[in-house]
Amino acid sequence: VDEYVKGDSFFDVFAGTGVVTKEFVNDFNHFIINDFLYSNNVIYKAFFGTQKYDIKKLLNLKQVYNEITNRDYDDTYLEDNYGGKFFSNYDAMKIGEIRERIERNKEINEREKSILIASLLYSLDNIANTVGHYDAYRKSNNNNLVDRFKFELINPLNESEKSFSIFRKDSNQLVREIKADVAFIDPPYNSRQYSRFYHVLETIVKWDKPALSGVAMKPPSENMSDYSKVSAPKMFDDLISHLNVKYIIVTYNNTYKPKSSSSKNKITHEQIIESLMKVGHTRQFEHSYKFFNTGKTDLKDHKEFVFITEVGVFNDNINEGKLEEK
């Protein structure tokens, strides 16, 4: 990437948990980070926020939270809905009690609150009875769930010389408002609706305690992405055409013909190239892809592609190359 991309500002359009921004934090000075999940938004505020925080206060709260043995402030919502499913009953009680105490705490600022909530998310995700997401829990384990929860603090970045602008907006709208040197795009282009896949984390962050239903105890549908529907190619083309940047980096993996319908890409390799070549000269790189797989996908030729487009520079050919494995 360093060979083909230059600039001072980096726009992470579909930032997920922020791992790409963390990877590039030493390469740029100004960052724009966006994702539509509430859980990811609080993670950005925790890791990248600029407000000062008191580490001694947070360490003291960590000790207090880990010493919780019973419910003092929370109701039974988390235990009733997630106990014996995603967590043991005791762990569900403890998670709910910690979240309620964070919500009631008037002695912490917004950055400290975000750090505590993000820490709670990472801590509970480490022991959740799942296969990496919350679309379902592992039923073979739910009668033997052990109490394993331990509250651990995250390590926020302390990049005082960097600037971070954090958004939770529709990406296609946001690109019309942002100017940057480099845009990084990893859109949710299969059928998995991430607000549904990570509904437990979303509910704990929002803490609005909605009515839940179904085997996986999901809330009513909201925050659904058009990139996981048949309209994805049109949405992607609109996004690319309205980016106000010098360089575009797009990542894409070729699960277009899997056996699992939820893994099936809504945007083809060809459609991505077509949209990118409309705005500038595009280079394509590929390497083997490590991915989440339910065992229903033929993996023989599974590749991840990285496209780098220099906006406003046109060439009818696509340059191809291999990415070096780190």
From TrEMBL:
Query: What EC number(s) has UniProt assigned to this enzyme?
Result: 2.1.1.72
Provide one Gene Ontology biological process annotation: methylation
Q: Which InterPro entries match?
A: DNA_methylase_N6_adenine_CS, MeTrfase_D12, SAM-dependent_MTases_sf
- Which UniProt keywords are given for this protein, alphabetically ordered? Methyltransferase, S-adenosyl-L-methionine, Transferase
Catalytic reactions of this protein: a 2'-deoxyadenosine in DNA + S-adenosyl-L-methionine = an N(6)-methyl-2'-deoxyadenosine in DNA + S-adenosyl-L-homocysteine + H(+)
Gene Ontology MF term list: nucleic acid binding; site-specific DNA-methyltransferase (adenine-specific) activity
Decide whether keyword Iron is in the record: no
Q: What is this protein called?
A: site-specific DNA-methyltransferase (adenine-specific)
In which organism is this protein found?
A: Staphylococcus devriesei
